[in-house]
Design brief:
4 strands, single chain, 38% helix, 20% strand, Alpha-Beta Plaits, alpha+beta, Arc Repressor Mutant, subunit A
Length: 150
């Protein structure tokens, strides 16, 4: 396991804000030489602390105008039911996140669609027909005051 000392933590904070920063600028902001900074970043990548780099997309510019968080309750609480549900969800491109959660439901999904009609189709024709699904609740995102996902 890679040691997360203050310098590694600083590097990670900088990269979370700007994953395209040059090594030279990252080294300067982290207070390291470029070679020492590069070694640390490579070790963070090799050890899996840094899992990848992503682009932050303006959803509206790619035709996504509807975002919702959806809770899903299953009708069976077996491992087989959960695995079957997760396999089905993994095939749904509208689902951008799927989390197994505690509480009164089993799953929390982040769903992106072009518009309400597209979401309704997915809700009815994809999610609603899964045999494991007992309850669905949709929370439509009207705005996001903070979103640090990358």
């Amino acid at each position: 396991m890679t040691k997360l000392d203050d310098i590694n933590t600083r590097i990670l904070r900088i990269l979370v804000r700007d994953g395209r920063i040059t090594n030279l600028e990252l080294a300067e902001r982290a207070g390291l030489s470029p070679s020492a900074c590069l070694r640390r970043v490579q070790e963070l990548e090799r050890s899996g602390v840094i899992k990848g780099y992503r682009a932050v997309i303006d959803l509206a510019k790619i035709g996504i105008g509807f975002v919702a968080y959806v809770t899903v309750g299953l009708n069976s609480h077996t491992k087989a039911a959960q695995e079957a549900f997760e396999r089905a969800i993994a095939r749904a491109p509208e689902v951008r996140e799927c989390h197994n959660v505690t509480g009164t439901v089993e799953y929390l999904l982040r769903v992106e669609a072009a518009d309400l009609a597209d979401y309704k189709h997915w809700h009815t024709e994809v999610l609603g027909v899964l045999p494991q699904v007992q309850a669905i609740t949709t929370f439509v995102v009207m705005g996001s005051a903070k979103d640090d996902r990358a």
